[in-house]
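Example (one chain per record):
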Amino acid sequence: MLLAGLKIVEFSQVIAGPFGGVILSDLGAEVVKIEKPDGGDDGRTTGPAYLHGDSMTFLELNRGKKSMALDLKSQDGIAVLNRLLAESDVFIHNQRPDVVRSLGFDGETLLKQFPRLVYCQISAFGHKGPMELAPGYESIVQSYSGLASINGFPDRPPVRVGSSICDLGTGMWAAIGILAALRQRDRTGKGMIVNASLLETALSWSASAINNYVNTGAEPVRQGSAYTNMVPYQTFEASDGSLVVCAGNDRLFAKLAKVLGHPEWAQDPRYAKNRDRLKNRTEVVCLIQEILDRGTVAAWLEKLRDAAVPCAPVQSIPEVVNDQQVEALNILQSFEGEDLTLVGLPLSFDGKRPGFTHIAPRLGADNGTI
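Predicted structure:
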């Protein structure tokens, strides 16, 4: 296990904090999850009950951890937390800054007590500014950050990205920040405060649109499945379904034109270069769509792949789960003795993916052993 010997205390709920913790847990760290005695992590009830009364959200984001039910509003609870932190390397939480300050475990206080501790604080809107204390969830942050405004089709209202990418991305950034801080501690012997937030994550996902606007003044327009800077690079309809075709450069467009029976497009000054195709986006897309509509998804995929033109079917989740490539990656992993299969970490080391140790713990399951 890559992070064997690393001890982490996690006091976080639902998605962002728990995802940061489960990344480190899957990589071999010991993660003790602190939960409130009454009900525990709110993520336990985020969705229908699946196994042992817990939601799928909780089960997937807390595998491999230990659970300790602890009342941090009591002096005894704080004393237990301090004993845990005294022998731990990392503390992760996603409580509001005013809450942790009132309880006495804000970063400045704990680093005075435990100077080697890496303290990771996750928030909705960031560690400073007028929105510092505001609560926030995925949909709120996607809307506030502008991310939703660039998602969807131009003639329809903005939409939330289907996956909780701000929550999950923040957990990922937190894990990266923690590992970087631990590397720094190896050199200096001193811990530090790591800050991550859903808003900053959302802004990083929107960086291309933001950078373009800040530097050119061009306000982004929702493109549906298309991409602002390349044509063709989007979903098309065949006679029996949808496929994505991405001609990421002029050489690939020439190959695509040949497959579609119009090699002359590659020499046409309206279409030959990507910047010309951007100016004539509607015309190019209509020409391609008219041809693709005459064949099936399978037939076009075969022709396009033979010509090395990047393409893919638009698959449903059931189709993805049974896809040969997904099966070959063995990213879906099960727990011995439990009727539960989850997506593992999207990482392999020397060709081997980190496995699971045990399912998410029952509330307070490890109080007697910690």
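Caption: The CA atoms of residues 204 and 210 lie 9 Å apart.
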